Amino acid sequence: xxxxxxxxxxxxxxxxxxxxxxxxxxxxxxxxxxxxxxxxxxxxxxxxxxxxxxxxxxxxxxxxxxxxxxxxxxxxxxxxxxxxxxxxxxxxxxxxxxxxxxxxxxxxxxxxxxxxxxxxxxxxxxxxxxxxxxxxxxxxxxxxxxxxxxxxxxxxxxxxxxxxxxxxxxxxxxxxxxxxxxxxxxxxxxxxxxxxxxxxxxxxxxxxxxxxxxxxxxxxxxxxxxxxxxxxxxxxxxxxxxxxxxxxxxxxxxxxxxxxxxxxxxxxxxxxxxxxxxxxxxxxxxxxxxxxxxxxxxxxxxxxxxxxxxxx
Length: 312
Description:
alpha+beta, Aminopeptidase, eleven-stranded mixed sheet, 7 helices, globular
């Protein structure tokens, strides 16, 4: 069985059977090929990639500085096949000397429970998910998200003049999830992209109370077409990307976030979006409840172990 032939075809068929929204894998990623076999002699494989992010890279908001990422190819061998390729990965990592700021990661379809025991057995934990929300049919009103909101809240599009207030709100999100060491570093990493987005008229909305911003939805457009990075994760189409959503702590629990997202969804759908998508941390006690209530469901789960040397 060749990695580039029969095994990849089995992987593609497995993904199609797991979830109709998963995009069809276009081909093998570039990287180092690892091979293994189950106790029955069935061959499995994985493609290993490594990434190093320099100081100041925006990726450091959610990622370790050095990452080894595995793309398993296990076909229909289930937990046993996944276990075999993860063992091969563990042996391969013996040749590395990862420092504390490192991680081993796997991105895998969320609707594949058979892989879960193998991931857990090797020390990987589900840390985040890419979740999607499809646009409702034109004839159906989106009853999940009514347009009404607290009487003292005004929702409007953000402008470059809103930069300072929007940045302060976005920093709240990352401070809460403890993704980086402190607010000074957060602002340094977040500010340039937010400033560029506001200047370009990106889809960013603010919720205000008495003229003061209490929530922000920092969004953008992503087009998934063959050959693009987005096509590896999303079905074809124009997608609204919900990048950062933050509510000022004193305003939480009043329906402000839901009202803000009702406007975001309505406007994206009005402009022809296939749907919207976002990433949220599965261990975040607010996000893991809020986003499913807004109609999002996981498509991909990001499994991770830190530091990389802790892979079992």
